[in-house]
Amino acid sequence: MSIRIGTRGSALALAQTERVCRMLAERDIAVETFVITTEGDTTTGVPLHEIGGQGVFVRALDDAILRGEIDIAVHSMKDIPAARPPGLALGAVLERDSPADFLAYLGQIEDVRTVGSSSTRRCAQILRFDPSVEVKPLRGNVDTRIRKMRERQYDAIILAEAGLERLGYTLPGDRLPVDTFVPSPNQGAIAVVCREDPSLVEMLTFLDHAPTRFDVEAERAVMEEVGGGCFTPQGIYCRDGSLIGEVLALDGSRWERVEQHVETLEEARECGRDLRALAEHLIREAREALGLSS
Ligand SMILES: NCc1[nH]cc(CCC(=O)O)c1CC(=O)O
């Protein structure tokens, strides 16, 4: 018997899946890999929030598990939306890689005028840091984004450092500090999703890193309470129970923030409710500015 692993076909997804395959192989568990194309991979011209947010990357693989075509799927955990279909379990969360963002640029930092990113969070955070930069939309996989910077369509781009490391890329630029460029919830964590099947979940537990799982679940608890969706600039980061959450105005001119040590997911949830109450006006503002109704 072998485990059927589903993955997206992007270089990043394949690198992540390769890591899980290696870990399974070390335990003499046979694996078969299936590459599945998702709507998010075939639609690159429009901002993510217009095609249904991060969830588009995950849905096709969820469906393949539920149809019994594959047993497990490997994802960048930050791409997994808050609402999950019934019948699926989070089989394992690997030990976290770098949670930080990376500002990549070719010349001198002083010469950076245009920064490419389609993430409302990254745009707001870079504008807070330097309101004089011009942020320009930039979607596509990591390679596409790097190519566009090399073609000088942008002076700089912002990417997850974890993605660069998994692809083995070293780019000129700077790691952005996580206390001011607070990452997306679950950035840098790899998740293994499976059918809600106790024997399958049990088989995957050796892949699981408990401290990472607590931190990423605390981040998701905050994310669920804040709501906001991917159109609201928000950063949520937990490390060993030290939680930072912030919601920003789209132009980075204002923000609300909570910072607290949490021991339980319920405490994290409470922190999320506090942030929600503080940031209600910023969430409404972002939704209205982007012309979204829900
Ligand atoms: N938005 C796509 C995406 N999903 C996960 C990562 C990076 C890897 C990770 O966060 O685990 C990236 C690329 C990026 O944000 O630059």
Automatic annotation (TrEMBL):
UniProtKB keywords: Porphyrin biosynthesis, Transferase
Pfam families: Porphobil_deam, Porphobil_deamC
Ranges of residues in domain Porphobilinogen deaminase C-terminal: 216-277
EC nos: 2.5.1.61
Catalytic activity of the protein: 4 porphobilinogen + H2O = hydroxymethylbilane + 4 NH4(+)
Transferase as UniProt keyword: yes
Cofactor: dipyrromethane
UniProt record similarity statement: Belongs to the HMBS family.
Record function comment: Tetrapolymerization of the monopyrrole PBG into the hydroxymethylbilane pre-uroporphyrinogen in several discrete steps.
Protein name: Probable porphobilinogen deaminase
Lineage: Archaea, Methanobacteriati, Methanobacteriota, Stenosarchaea group, Methanomicrobia
Gene (name only): hemC
